[in-house]
Design a protein that fits this description.
The protein has two domains: 207 residues, 2-enoyl-CoA Hydratase, Chain A, domain 1 (Alpha-Beta Complex); 48 residues, Lyase 2-enoyl-coa Hydratase, Chain  A, domain 2 (Orthogonal Bundle), CATH 1.10.12. It has ten helices and nine strands.
Amino acid sequence: MIEPVNAEEFISQPERRKPEQFQHVKLRIDGGVARMTLSRPEHNLLNEAMLRELADGITHAGERDEVKLIVLDSACKVFCGGIDIGEYTSQRVFQMLDAFHAAFAGMLEVGKPVVCVVNGPAIGGGAELAAFGDLVIATPKARFAQPEITIGVFPPLASTILPFLVGPKIALELVLTGEAVTAERALELGMVNRLVPEAQLEKTVEDLVGRISGHSGPVLTMAKKAILGGMGLSLRDGLKHSMNIFLNELYRLEDSQEGLRALVEKRKPNWKNR
């Protein structure tokens, strides 16, 4: 009798890379913002090394107390062309899937808000990257597609998150047809928060980042936790989840007390980020 394959036997957990060791993702931290730039010419195809760098970079940013949010953008004309099919071999499939899961689990679980800046095509795994971003800023050059169905597979992450973003009917349409969505339609569907001309992209990102980073870091984290943690719950259970965070976690923060004092004293809060 042939024993079933245990994927864990084929995956040796790699050591976390330091940002200065990254080859395909540029990470810099400045003013409370961790900027992660995809940089694997020409199409930012996701290989195992790049996925590991994404996961390690998100973890690194998430552990830094001074970081309030993460900005994910691209140095290429394409935001991300998806998985590098060249690495999708039977010998590498377990390692690739593990790296893929680590990167996206990192985006979902990191306490810092993640802002994705899409100024070009986001295809397959690239569209899933944008979908897992907490906020998405795009230009008319952006388009989003899940073409996996055309090569005989389906996108597991998109199939899970798209129903939450656009509803089951549209999610089925996007996954079953594999057709691309324009930036304009993505805005209508709620896949994109802001659609701006390319000439205004940098200023729009700076303004949004400045607005968010001007708030208390721990409070931002709790707000994200309250919203995402309530997904899939009934309205009653979601309310309990949010109120539990509000009453039992938020009120222990110095910043929540400072915010109330500043309101009463009619001044700007002086955040301690604790």
